[in-house]
Design brief:
By secondary structure, the protein is α/β, with parallel strands linked by helices. It is built from 15 helices and eight strands. It has two domains: about 50 residues; about 250 residues, 2-enoyl-CoA Hydratase, Chain A, domain 1 (Alpha-Beta Complex). Helix content is about 50%, strand content about 15%. Helix 11 crosses helix 12.
């Protein structure tokens, strides 16, 4: 019996290692953003030199020189990103999604399906897992797809009403058993189709905001990519709200804002600046509690470091929240959100 347990642990470890490798070996050149092209060209040259050096040719000096240029290029680009460029990084097709973090950061994840009313919405994943190998936690998060087929299955991360109803159903289970809830936000917005509206999209989101506010367990929210409008707020009420450095959180997409205000798609970068949707902006406005740093070049270039940064922040939050009586959490959460948007004018 003991041997079987050891074997299972080794298999799980192997799967985690495979997942890390999968995230680290995708071809960045195929999905690079326009402003990333200089970096990708340097990476190509470095890889070519490394391939030649395997044939017995010493090219270590040239490789080191190019690696220095690569690091400088990354700093020059990513230290000066505009709000619109950060939106593009948040939407990067190789950026880690909720299930990537869940597989890396947790153990024994069991996904729960269905809202018990209509169907199972794959745009939101819910379930339970073990955090740090021992503490049971509830997981709720948006999930996008890696290819066209999966994106159609998951509605490109845009949840239907049944997705939000599934989320609150599982969150109530977490409250019943006294488990902390971890929410990962990554959606361009709630699904805008006629069927979603017919089934009560607005009501489902509003209901979730009210009900999540009253849950007597710790809730930690992290915006890992896109944080679009009510689609994000439907699972975004928490005691601690964090954002990855290159994520965005906004009442509307920059494209939608440009279409409404100027009726001109070319004004999208201006809309992104006006919306104050970056992590720096939202920290100054007290909408979020902390910015989680990303490695140089973004989360899609170094998944493991990003995931470990998230682990540290969640560990700290769980430590802080465990000392607060659970009966006090709803009131503190209410006061936290009531303070948002309050300002004084002369």
């Amino acid at each position: 019996m003991a041997k079987k347990t050891v074997q299972k642990t080794e298999d799980e470890t192997l799967e985690i290692k495979k997942e890390k490798t999968r995230l680290g070996t995708r071809d960045l050149a195929e999905a690079c953003l326009p402003f990333e092209r200089p970096v990708v060209e340097l990476e190509k040259k470095i890889n070519e030199l490394r391939a030649h050096s395997q044939n017995g040719i010493d090219l270590s000096g040239e490789i080191k020189s190019l690696e220095k240029k690569l690091e400088k290029a990354l700093k020059d680009i990513f230290d000066q990103l505009t709000p619109w460029q950060r939106v593009q990084v948040a939407r990067h097709p190789l950026r880690p999604y909720t299930l990537d973090y869940v597989k890396y950061l947790t153990e024994d994840f069991i996904e729960l399906h269905g809202d018990r009313h209509f169907c199972d919405d794959r745009a939101i994943i819910t379930g339970f897992a073990r955090w740090n190998g021992k503490q049971p936690v509830c997981i709720v998060g948006h999930q996008k797809g890696r290819d066209t087929k999966e994106n159609l299955l998951r509605s490109f991360g845009s949840a239907h009403p049944e997705g939000y109803r599934k989320a609150i159903r599982v969150m109530r289970l977490a409250e019943k058993f006294g488990l902390p809830i971890l929410c990962f936000i990554d959606t361009p917005g709630a699904y805008p189709g006629i069927g979603a509206e017919e089934r009560g999209q607005a009501e489902a989101i509003a209901y979730n905001i009210r009900e999540i506010s009253d849950l007597a367990v710790p809730i930690i929210v992290i915006v890992i990519g896109e944080g679009g409008s009510g689609g994000a707020l439907g699972i975004g009420v928490g005691d601690r709200v964090y954002m990855l450095e290159n994520a965005y959180y906004s009442v509307i997409s920059p494209e939608g804002c440009a279409a409404i205000l100027w009726k001109e798609p070319s004004r999208t970068p201006d809309a992104a600046s006006a919306l104050k949707l970056t992590a720096d902006d939202l920290l100054q406005l007290n909408v979020i509690d902390m910015i989680i740093p990303e490695p140089l070049g973004g989360a899609h270039r170094d998944f493991e470091t990003t995931a470990e940064n998230i682990r540290k922040v969640i560990n700290q939050a769980l430590e802080e929240l465990k000392d607060i009586p659970k009966k006090d959490l709803p009131d503190l959460r209410y006061q936290k959100f009531r303070k948002m948007g309050v300002f004084a004018s002369k």
